[in-house]
Every structure is written in structure tokens, then in C-alpha cells.
Design goal:
This protein is of the alpha+beta class. It has helices at 5-13, 34-40, 83-86; strands at 47-50, 56-59, 67-68. 22% of the residues lie in helices and 11% in strands. The protein has a three-stranded antiparallel beta sheet with strand order 1-2-3, with no helix packed on it. The radius of gyration is 21 Å and the shape is elongated. It starts with a helix and ends in a 5-residue tail after the last helix.
Length: 91
């Protein structure tokens, strides 16, 4: 008989005999905080969007996660010497 998620985790912690590999976040399930998703620039696979902070983020098809774009066209701060002047003010 298979162990429950809790029993399997406790077996792993206590040096017992777990019946499968343990994912320590398995009991939490997947949840996404709407504030984090908007501020971090989360986007759907295959899309590019601008975050609330002004930087661009892309999730290429077939990749594991989104990543900020940092080519010349999408840089948020073009020149670090005048960085403050090039950032838009947060509303």
C-alpha cells in the first residue's frame, strides 16, 4: 500500500523508507499570487509583454519559464549614468 504524501515526507525526514521521491512542496499544490504575477512580469508561453515595472519579459515556446528581454530595443535603462532619468515614474 502506498504511503500518503504526509507519511512519505515523514519517512524521508526521519531516515525511513519512502516509497517514492519527495517533492517538499507537493502538499501545497501550485498557487500564483496575482501581485507577484503582475509585478514580476509573468506572461503566457509564446508571448512578450511589458511588466508593471516597465521591463519587457518573454516566454519562448518550449522553454520552462519566462525571462526578461535584454536586447538593445527592450532595455529599461539604456545608460546607467542617466538611469534615473530614463525610468518612468510608478503610479
Amino acid at each position: 500500500m502506498a504511503l500518503s504524501k504526509r507519511e512519505n515526507l515523514l519517512e524521508t525526514i526521519n531516515g525511513g523508507s519512502p516509497d517514492r521521491l519527495v517533492n517538499q512542496f507537493e502538499y501545497l499544490g501550485m498557487w500564483f499570487d496575482p501581485i507577484f504575477m503582475n509585478c514580476s512580469g509573468w506572461c503566457d508561453p509564446g508571448t512578450i509583454r511589458q511588466s508593471d515595472w516597465g521591463f519587457w519579459i518573454q516566454w519562448p515556446e518550449g522553454q520552462m519559464a519566462p525571462f526578461p528581454l535584454h536586447d538593445e530595443e527592450h532595455l529599461l535603462i539604456k545608460d546607467i549614468e542617466i538611469g534615473r532619468a530614463s525610468c518612468r515614474e510608478r503610479v
